[in-house]
Structures are given as structure tokens and as C-alpha cells.
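=== RUN LOG ===
request id: a7f3
mode: sequence -> structure
chains: 1
length: 218
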Amino acid sequence: MFFLGHMTWAYIWASIFAGKSKVKLIVPAVLILGIAPDVDIFLRGFGVLHHTFTHSFLFWLVVFVPFFAVFRRKSIPYFAAVVQHFAFGDLLVGNVMIFWPFNQSFFGFNIAMTSTLDVALETTGLLLAAGISYFNGDLKRMLSIDVQNLLMFFPLSALLLSMTHFAVDWPLIPLITYIWSRKILTIIVLGHIILAVFLALSTIQGLRKLLKITLHEQ
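=== RESULT ===
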């Protein structure tokens, strides 16, 4: 699954668990956790394969032990945000070493990222996340002039990095032509652009608040 789907479904699942525990989500943290297992992409130089130990239940359970000990139930939505990456997204679209280290086999349906199913999941995730954020007030909060929205810079940067990742070995013009020649890729790209614009607007609102605070202190 692309970062678009991982981020939006992370927010959806975190919101579901936050609703039960009445936790006010730190949305930038949720979005980053939604893509956190893919850190293994940057560890390939160290011999780490994609979809291996960073995509397992035990790995993230161990990582979250201190958070469960300190924050208890408040940590559950964030744990759900990271676990959905491989227990939902990558399990359906791809295959993962979900039971590492007890079982080092890959599990999943191994469906292509450019399949109709993946496009449906990514699009549905974007629409559901937008609807949930509107009704629970997160949308208004993320677009308000609030210095905390500066944190949206981090998921924005990660999303932009993922959008350019596949263009590294491609000349720009042929890449654009290729994307627009396939409806499935066009939908995925448009979804990424919509999410990126939203994250950018939220980041700008945070920057506006920071500037107001700075000017006031002067």
C-alpha cells in the first residue's frame, strides 16, 4: 500500500480506538506511525529486507511497552495506527513477516499496489478519513491557526518523499506521461496530491501562529 493508504487508514483505526477510550488524537503522530514500519526501506543498505521484522506484531509490542506502562489506555490508538500498516494494509496488498521472529514466513494476499483493490482501499481511506475528521472536529482543529499544526510538516515531508521515491530513476516528463496514461496511477497520484495539499495547509496554519507569537514577543 502507498503512504496515502497507510496514513489515512492509520487515522481511521486510531480514531475508532480513540473513540472508545476518549483519547484526543495527536494526528501528526498517528500519520507518522501509520508509515513507521516502512523504515526498513531505508535499511536496505544494512541487509534488511522490506516487510520483515519492522512489520511484525512482536517488534511493535516491544517498542510500545514503555508507552503502555506510562500512558496506559491512551497508547492504544497509536498502537492501532502502527499495527494496521501490516495487519491490514500490507497483509491485503502484499505479504509481510507478521509473526517474526517465531515464524519467518511471509503472509498476505500479495495483491499488486497498482491493482483495483489497492486503489479502492486508498480512495476509501482518504474519503473515510476526511469524513471522520469532519465529524469529530479534527478537521477544524488541523486547519486552525495553532502552533501544534507545525508538526504536520513531518507527515507532509514523508508523503512528499514517497511521491518522489518512484521517480528517482525516471526522467520527469516520461514519468508524468506514464502516470497519466494509466487511470489507476492517476487516481493514486491525485489522492496523494489532495492529502499533501491538506497537510501543507495545516503546516502553514501552524507557521502563521508561530509568526504571530514571534512578532508579539518583539
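=== NOTES ===
The chain has a mean pLDDT of 89.
The CA atoms of residues 9 and 88 lie 9 Å apart.
=== END ===
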